[in-house]
Amino acid sequence: MQGTEPGKTRPVLIVQAHALIGAGHPSTLIIPLTTNLIEAAEPLRFSIHAADRLTRNSDLLIDQIRAIDNRRLVKGPLTRLSPSLMAHVDNCIREVLDLVDL
User: Fold this and answer.
1) Distance separating alpha carbons of residues 57 and 11, to the nearest angstrom
2) How many CB atoms sit inside 10 A of residue 58's CB?
């Protein structure tokens, strides 16, 4: 994703249903990543290890979920999270949005 600074890009985790991505929907729901790591910050942050083309350990900024214009998506995918990591991300999202007991 293009950042707010000129020329800067930031990796993101796409958390939108695949059907919407393929249907030409103009925006995509994402969670931005940062390499400014903070330990023990769950559920607001969730750490993932560098893998594939994601070259640095990163924190998912769960509390910054947002929709971005698809034109801001410039590269990817850098990596794919395992089903167990995605389940953990799901749990963090549910906790931040207070959807745990639904």
Assistant:
1) 11
2) 24
Amino acid code (one letter) for 74 = V
- pTM summary value: 0.85
* Domains assigned to the chain: 12-96 (2.30.30.110)
Backbone angles phi, psi at 10, to 5 degrees: -135, 135
Torsion angle in degrees (nearest 10) through CA of 19, 9, 57, 53: 70
Pair of tokens at residue 84: 């167990």
CB count in 10 Å sphere of residue 38: 10
Q: List pLDDT tens digits, range 12-45.
A: 999 998 888 778 888 999 999 999 999 999 999 9
